Each structure stands twice: as C-alpha cells, then as structure tokens.
Glutathione-dependent peroxiredoxin (Aquariibacter albus), 169 residues
Amino acid sequence: MLKIGDRLPAATLYEFIEVEGGGCSLGPNAFTTEALSAGKTLAVFALPGAFTPTCSAQHVPGYVAAAEAFRAAGVDEILCISVNDAFVMGAWARELQTAGKVRLLGDGSAEFTQATGLTLDLTARGLGLRSQRYSMLVREGVVLSLNVEAPGKFEVSDAATLLRQAQAL
C-alpha cells in the first residue's frame, strides 16, 4: 500500500475537458501522474464513486469551498480521483461546479487505484472494484501525508484535515 515518502505510482488518469486550449482537446484527455505532479504541490483526494451521496454532498464540495485556502497554503492544484470514466467525471464536475478549483480525474480501469494498493471491493453492492476514500499531499510526486478512511467513514480525508496539513508544511 502507498505510504508517506513513496512516489506516486506511474499511471494515466483522464480528465474531460470542455474548453479547448493549452494543448488539450475537447473531451477526454490523458494525463500521466508524472506530468500532473512535476514541479507541483498537489492536494489529492480519492473516493469510491462519482454521484454517490457522501462524495457529492460533502467530500468534493469541501475541497471546492477550500480551494483558495489551499492555494494560499502553497498547493498548486487539487485533484479528485475516482474509478469512473472521464465522461462521468466531467458530468459530475459540471454539476458540482468545480471548474478552476478541483480537477476531477477518471481512473476508469482502476490502474492508479490498484497501483496504490488503496482499492475497495464493492462487488457485493454491484459497484465492482473502487477506490478507498483518502486524501494526501504530494510534492513533486512524493507523498508527504496520507489520510486513509476506515471503511464507511468520512473523518480524515476531508478538506479541513488536509488543509491543516498543507498549512503546516
């Protein structure tokens, strides 16, 4: 399992881009973890699924509301990762109005999630392999802090907890 001091595993994540520019075309665009983290401090959080109750009502909105505070604490970008495809993540981003605040990245084949060892098997609930709920601070690809939730909990991966950690750096 991923731990503090580890490098992010090499993987490709996908983001649905609605406005063409900066070398990105409309629709799903691929981004490697290496490119996402190069020269940056990132606040990264992962969750079991787009459009699910806790994720939609609390997890993502908390990071959207705290986006400016994260920037003031030296965080360059906030990334949300879920085992969903880029189309679903793009629709969810529109609904939650995350543009310019939180990038919602799809890990549709669970490549990144499996490489971190932070999987959650929800097959019995009809959801298949998903991500555990967690948050982490990453500087230039290296994990500085990691907050993994106990099953069914939302206590340590929230925006307030990670923001306190970012402010302490």
Observations:
- The radius of gyration is 15 Å.
- The domain at 12-17+25-167 is CATH 3.40.30.10 (Glutaredoxin).
